[in-house]
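Example (one chain per record):
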Amino acid sequence: MLGLAAQAAVAIDNACLSEATAREIAERKQAQEALDELNQSLERQVAERTEELRKQEAALRQAQKMEAVGQLTGGIAHDFNNLLQIIIGNLEMLQRRLPDKASHQLRRAAAQAMNGAKRAATLTQRLLAFSRRQPLDPKPTDPNALVAGMSEMLHRILGEAIAVEGVSSAGIWKIEVDQGEMEASLLNLAVNARDAMPEGGRLTIETANSFIDEAYAQQHVEVQPGQYVMISVSDTGIGMDETTAARAFDPFFTTKSVGKGTGLGLSQVYGFVKQSGGHVKIYSEAGQGTTVKIYLPRWIGEHEVIEPPAETFVPEGQRRETILVIEDDEDVRSYSVDSLRELGYTILDAREVLAR
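Predicted structure:
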């Protein structure tokens, strides 16, 4: 009997041991599964954070590149602007002083020189716009009214093959921008869209209130979170691949054939938006069209005072009126002195005054 009891006890002990072993194995398996899940979660977090840092680094490099190019371009454009001021000013003086009996060939040569100089001045202004050095006259503006006011001009410029659609949001906020430069930017985008739709298509200009949050601002250098008005220009054209879209705002970069574009249209838009405290972003895929979204800060202020347009006239001076001309560029100063003297003022050249 004792032998049987001992055997039963051993069997019970073995059963308990097997149960404990099985429970321990299950617990180890659960712990291993939890550890694997934790590792996978950490790997996902590391991958997501790495991708986020990669995007931030790419955005920072792009911003630094645009800033460096802008500084270089701005310096060159400033010098060219001085040179063109001298050229255009003296050409104007030459045209005014041409005798009535001057030959047609001589007048045509002066006119062609002036046209060439003005075209160069236009390019220079676009470079100044890209480098954020152009003079702006910002005023509170209703985005819906501004876009609606361009409708007829856009239809005329884009032609019948392109349908123009406006999508205006109700209760749109006001923005503070230079209206002329804003219209020029939208026109640049519209012309680019037209060129991307050689067989015709649809151009859509949309306005909407928008909010840029902290997460988006962290991924885009120079963007501040807050309330913005979004103005987007979309087309159904050929679109751009990722490489082309990344360079679209670079000055002188163009995919058009030689003589078809300067490569300064989008760079002018970029510089104007940045100078206005805004943000601009391109969304495009090859064969899927392009959307350019402009974000401009919401204007919050008192009701603006509408001033009557100033009359443009050339003042005639008198000898008793004296003007001191101060300019570090000798040629610009010389032209300014001659022009003011021609108007009848008494002129003091700062360099001559200091040399006395």
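Caption: Residues 2-97 form the longest helix (96 residues).
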